[in-house]
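FYI - complex with magnesium ion, inputs then prediction.
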Amino acid sequence: MEIAQSSQSISEVPTHIAIIMDGNGRWATRRSMSRLKGHEQGAKAVREAVKGCRELGVPYLTLFAFSSENWNRPEEEVNHLMGLFKFFIKRELKELKNNGVRVNFIGNLKRLPQDIQDLANVALEETRDNRGLVLTIALSYGAQAEIISAVQSLAEKVKAGELQPEEITEHLFSKSLDTGDIPDPDLIIRTSGEKRLSNFLLWQSAYAELVFQDVLWPDFTKRHLEDAIDDYFGRNRRFGAISG
Ligand code: IPE
Ligand code: IPE
Ligand code: MG
């Protein structure tokens, strides 16, 4: 009997790591601080994750920073988060640029305040030619909305007679998503002990390895990243076939 060709033993760092950065609020509440402080600390952990991926040679990192559902949080918290995103992009852009990082965004950016949209565009433009880590920030992102938007754009093409329904393949559909230019995640990490995807990369995570860590996001360090990658090395990715 032939051993399945598509099974893959893992020996290299994941090509694409995606992180659901969760637990900022609990981190602060446990210290009798306002949730807003937790988000401020969370921004520091983002630097750890980016630096860690660069040092470990991970080509793609995607960070879930704000979901479509997070718009339902109290106005004060949403405004504070928007302020932090702005501050973070402004402060980090130069360093990201100098470190060869290419910045990318996914999500419904049109819902964001205009100044953040403008800054996001500056970050895209200024890092466009970089060839190091591709850092994708999911802002105002929800996978179901992303899927619907891809369906609508394909339906428009069919309506215009530019596309036949049978030409809609998994490949074309993937290319129509916000993540069309980046590979599917190999490893998804979620911090804070929650074990769900919360509307993150639902299509793209079809064969992702999932690692759930108890650490609250503000406490996340390079060591947690390494632990998650170690966990990933221990997995046997079969993609529906039989392991060799
Ligand atoms: C993640 O931390 C950050 C965002 C969702 C923006 P949370 O704010 O969800 O923290 P917890 O889950 O309430 O602890
Ligand atoms: C997911 O965390 C979104 C981000 C980390 C940006 P949430 O805290 O919003 O998820 P739920 O509400 O616990 O599912
Ligand atoms: Mg949360």
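The radius of gyration is 19 Å. The chain is about 40% helix and 15% strand.
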